[in-house]
């Protein structure tokens, strides 16, 4: 009985793997279409490691973060993200307050650290619920830009940073109180591999 | 006689400028009573239908509408108690075997005791009942040769937050009673009608990179228009549909661009280092009205396309952060309390690009998202007051406002 079950399971597995092979074929066709339309094909891909290939050495490795297994790496990124300080803003303002400067310094140190230096920094600007329409999204973006410019002055490469504004769409606090609105007027960070 | 002529001229001048408030001393509008003869729906449903019938008749601003809910048989004689009204608007909702919903409407001239107007309307899905009512009221209004209220039949498109970083795009009738979700999944914001016939919309999807899409609401065809880092919003569409006014921020700096749909060429229109947003065409589309913080606070400005000079349009308020433009008229929202610690009041004001008058349109609460109707005679907006929300309609030429209660999630943006 057990044996027949085993055989059935193997047969099912083979069948399934047979089926699953067909899907990538479809995807491959799609990819070829898009690639040929943009004028690039797999055969003309540029070799990027020829230079390093001719360097004489012994052991090759990359920084810790990229050699970690996927789950561990993501966990580490999440941990780094959580340790980044949020930057808070005054009502209707996008300049960095003096009391927030030390927090920007801490963020700059964190993003320059070995653990984070290869990551892209997504700077998210947020607002309280009081603005309407486009102006609030623009205000969120200017907050993100103020933080990006401050981080750039402190040595973070601008090419590592991308900005987005979520306007009033991403509140951390939904009560209608002044404390709550103050918590929502913030810039926070997402780190991307 | 000379004084009479001056007074008459004065009234004419006043009537031609919508920024001036019209105060009526007498009300000569015909009065209308309403009777429900429906065979469909429970008591709650029938009252819901009645509120829309009454609302539509009132929103025309062409009638004095009796608020009393009355019932009757559809073919009954006129109740003698209604003799004080000029017209009786009797309607009947009914459903056939295929569950199609019908509205029969019959209007009696009470003076002559005769039915002067009778029509039937049908929808295949009962959720669309508001359109039955809007159509019947438009036709009754046209029958009496009143100024057109065809705008009642137009769709409103709006974006509504469903959870953090997530918003759906919905089309609705002008009262936001009928709703149909057309775009969902992710943060879909700032919908804007792409053409005057309301066949398609532009909207922004805020993924890793803000992207503007065109979506045909009838065919479901969707195409990517343009992407930009930081921010991308379609603020206005030219009358012929070929030009868009966009807010883009390729380097984190929100500025206004004019974009040609056919050629894909974009032209930067503003160069200020702060915030420039919400541009809308005016002056034969050779000028734009926009919101900017170039004075240190958000306010409304005007500039000619292709010239660097910028003109301040509003000299009132310290926080005017949204506007809607129709021809020479601009409606803007003004925050009356400009700090984070007092109760917040946002009022709507109407100004003209060609005069210095300011007309206040609302008096209390938080009034946001003003949008002109296609004929510029009405304004739609959202009002929050004492933890309640409502959709507001202002009939500018009649100095009348109406509110329809709203439920549901917070609205992100609206276009009419």
How are the elements arranged and paired?
The complex is a heterodimer of chains A (193) and B (416).
Chain A: H1 2-37, H2 50-53, H3 64-67, H4 70-83, E1 87-88, H5 101-112, E2 120-125, H6 133-153, E3 161-165, H7 178-184, E4 186-192
Parallel strand pairs in A: 2-3
Antiparallel strand pairs in A: 1-4, 2-4
Chain B: H1 2-15, E1 31-36, H2 43-60, E2 64-65, E3 70-71, E4 87-95, E5 101-109, E6 114-123, H3 129-143, E7 156-163, E8 166-172, E9 179-183, E10 188-193, E11 200-206, E12 210-216, E13 222-227, E14 232-237, E15 243-248, E16 255-260, E17 266-268, E18 276-282, E19 287-292, E20 299-304, E21 310-312, E22 320-326, E23 329-335, E24 346-352, E25 358-360, E26 366-372, E27 378-385, E28 388-395, E29 400-406, E30 411-415
Parallel strand pairs in B: 1-2, 1-3, 1-4
Antiparallel strand pairs in B: 4-5, 5-6, 7-8, 7-30, 8-9, 10-11, 11-12, 12-13, 14-15, 15-16, 16-17, 18-19, 19-20, 20-21, 22-23, 23-24, 24-25, 26-27, 27-28, 28-29
Describe the structure.
The complex is a heterodimer of chains A (193) and B (416). Chain A is of the alpha+beta class. Chain A has helices spanning 2-37, 50-53, 64-67, 70-83, 101-112, 133-153, 178-184; strands at 87-88, 120-125, 161-165, 186-192. Chain B has helices spanning 2-15, 43-60, 129-143, and strands at 31-36, 64-65, 70-71, 87-95, 101-109, 114-123, 156-163, 166-172, 179-183, 188-193, 200-206, 210-216, 222-227, 232-237, 243-248, 255-260, 266-268, 276-282, 287-292, 299-304, 310-312, 320-326, 329-335, 346-352, 358-360, 366-372, 378-385, 388-395, 400-406, 411-415. In chain B, the strands form 7 sheets. In chain B, strands 1, 2, 3, 4, 5 and 6 form a 6-stranded mixed beta sheet that branches. A 4-stranded antiparallel beta sheet of chain B has the order 9-8-7-30, with no helix packed on it. A 4-stranded antiparallel beta sheet of chain B has the order 10-11-12-13, with no helix packed on it. In chain B, helix 2 runs parallel beside helix 3 (129-143). The longest helix of chain B has 18 residues, at 43-60. Chains A and B meet through helix 6, strand 3 and helix 7 of A and loops of B.
